[in-house]
Description:
Helices cover 35% and strands 34% of the residues. It is built from two helices and 13 strands, in the order ααβββββββββββββ. It starts with 5 loop residues before the first helix and ends with a strand.
Amino acid sequence: MINPTSGIGATTGTAQTAATTKSAAAESQDRFLKLLVTQMKNQDPLNPMDNAQVTSQMAQLSTVSGIDKLNSTLEALSSSMIASQSLQAASMIGHVVMVPGNRMDLINGKGVGALNLDKPADSISVAITDAAGNLVRKMQLGSQNSGPVPLQWDGLNDNGQLLADGNYKFSATAVLGGVKSSATTMSYGLVNSVMQGAQGATLSVGQLGDFSLASVKEIL
């Protein structure tokens, strides 16, 4: 679960990092200017530094200073994005989401899932298997456009018998122009909690596992 004080810690840490970066950049500039002044004081009068050399060294200092400022800006932006992502993820707790997966729970004789097609299909064949891997039902969805395709199962096997509630799995094969391809299966699950990590917020979706926000295709 998200720690209510995590935002405070993150803000403090960002401020400290920015202060440290600023201090390091200032020290670097001071050292450079001292070296430049010393160099100019002790230069050979018969062979003094030309303007091009001074300009080049000043340009190097400006580049280093600019990079330091850019790094500080990116760090602040990253912290802001992580905080925003955490708030967005927290609002999804208790909601049903559609994420990549092949699990379909049969509850009260009803099972739901979805497919995600990268391109249209002339026909789609769906195979549903039980916990032991036995094929219990084959369904034909016909022609479909690209994008999400909802899938509903009435809990009946190929013999018309109602199966017991429980966990089942499904796969799908799409055909376009006589060429077969696998369709991406999508499962529905309830968001139980949110975890914050180095890569951003992660949603815990029951027995389906953990998913990033980018993995969520639909929120109910």
